[in-house]
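Data deposition worksheet. Section B asks for the primary sequence of the deposited chain exactly as it was used as input, without tags or linkers unless they were present during the calculation. Section C holds the resulting structure in token form. Section D is free text for depositor observations; keep each observation to a single sentence. Incomplete worksheets are returned to the depositor.
Section A, Depositor: J.P.
Section B:
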Amino acid sequence: MATFLYRLGRLAFRRRWYVALVWAAVLAAVGLGAIKAPAAADEEFSMPGIESQKAFDLMEERFPGTSADGATARVVFVAPDGGKVTAAGNRRAVEEAVTELADGSQVASVADPFTTKAVSKDGTTAYATVGYKVGPSELTDASRSQLEETLVEARDSGLTVEAGGTAMEAEGGPGGAAELIGVAMAAVVLLVTFGSLAAAGLPLLTALIGVGVSMATILTLASTLGLSTTTGTLAMMLGLAVGIDYALFVVSRYREERARGRTPQEAAGLAAGTAGSAVVFAGLTVVIALAGLAVVGIPMLTKMGLAAAGAVVVGVLIALTLVPALLGFWPNAVLTRRARRSGRAEQGAGPQERGPRDAKANGGTRWARFVLRRPVPVLLLGVVGLGALAVPMTDLQLGMPGDEAKSTSTTERRAYDALAEGFGPGFNGPLTIVVDAEGDSDPKGAVEAVAEEIGATKGVVSVSPAQFNEAGDTAVFSVVPATAPTDERTTNLVETIRGERPGVESGTGATFEVTGTTALNIDISDKVQAALVPYLVIVVGLAILLLMVVFRSLLVPLKAALGFLLSVLASLGVVVLVFQQGHGAGILGVEQTGPIMSLMPIFLVGIVFGLAMDYEVFLVSRMREAYVHGESPDQAVVSGFKHSARVVVAAALIMIAVFAGFIGESDPMIKMIGFGLASAVLFDAFVVRMAIVPAVLALLGHRAWWLPRALDRLLPRVDVEGEALNRGPAAAPAPSDTAELEVART
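Section C:
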């Protein structure tokens, strides 16, 4: 591995024009494909294997042509000062608004509240449902403007008018202020780390090229593979973060090799052979974690994971080829000003030319020695601290926050509140009952019996009249709960209705299923919770095997996996603390607390696991390298921190910066994901990898690098430490390198 990557790095350095032109051609090709490709359609959310999805599929089969694929808007009218919307003046204003809403070119239908009986019992609130011919992403600016102008005109009549629904959603997809903030913060971290504008700019440039290639590819294949506009969000987030980090490690190793007096080409080859090997295995762990999202069984999540995995692969390829090529164009630009004057990354001999006692101690060295002197207190403090933060996770409640979680400054949230006040809290999340009476001698009677039984269930406010299909053998009706969609009592109601189903079905001869947004969210939460353990077993198991190959150790991979679990539990705990329990929510701009997004644990585990293994590989591989070269276990820990701690800290800060940028978004789910990922990286990088890992290695000593003989024979051998480069001909500069060194120093 190391020898192959060494040769690849030298080749990319030497043939830099060809490498640069190839990547430019790839970017141009996929960019042109993205421009020419049809726009991505709105993806229909589906989750095979749950009751809600089965009921929806039955509706699609028995009620053909009635699927609501278009965007919808629910316009809510509230009379002023406790008046009635049925009063003459208010009713005229509502009817005029309904007429104007129907004039839109993309409007399919508008339901008049006075003809559909969409008026509250006290007469203060009414709503009109607007259906569109196209999905939310295909709504034109003219259609959105017409809707907003109608709301303004209706408000001028004295009514309180708000609107919710999919038509009010902002256009999704990646790109925006969050990414710009993350890039800006990453640039500052790189500048402080390297002390050179060129060294800071090179990882940013290559990461942006990688993200450009990945996103253009996703857009090109969106229509063919059925990718939605949201598929690329995770790919952009991770592609940007790992692209910067991987280039950072290669550039850092290049500077280190130049400090040892290597020629630029030799330094680029050694950087690719050593740091590049770590990049390959770190990237593999991220890809495993992302591809493993397919285990959950949600097609949308699988597509997001595979797209993000592709972005990571692109980032790895760029770090191994384009980064050495750009170093070939400007071999001395990434060095400090003092180093450029001498032709070396630092004055004096390199680490291999000095004893460990004579080497100047940096921050990483001092911290490692501190931990080695006090391994037990550091270990206990780290484990107990993260354990305490993980305690709130025992109160974790999963759900899918909707408009109720948005800011009160949005019209969607105000519309939600107005409907809840006028029609009851359960009105915003009705249950849909699909009754299959096929083969029953009296389908209508069976449906009425089912509706009567469900209507008598405690917690049900009302049951709507049943609507039959043309064949008359299938019916659909709505059930309004007494509690809000995210209330635990609503979940209990769904479980009660389903639990009483056998008795109801045996008495009526018809079968029924419960669906609707509320039931769908409940089913998703249950399925995600059931899939979490198998996902962890598969992903963590594969990663442990991979790390065994890398480190030739049994205990180091186990320690890495256990540390990751501790950091994930702690990050989930702080997410619950803020977004569910409300502690410090105001600081982050969270106005409404509630259940944690159902997919959050899976997202957190999948993304953070890969990133955590990045830090493990980059940090511990240097320790392994020192140990293999004859240093004692304690000296190897110090050497690993001396060479890698500063870069790992910079990489973690970059990740935190990228993820923290999303905390400023108005969407509560994006805010939650950004906060959770930033917290997880903070805990894993600075507590687990920088404190718990060296403490455990100090306590284990030589046992840390023990591998049973059976496993040692079974596992393939890969030269991650670059041992072949030190004992082979690659270690000595080639004749052409001598002249190259003289040119670089002039």
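Section D:
The first strand starts at residue 72 and ends at 78.
The radius of gyration is 30 Å.
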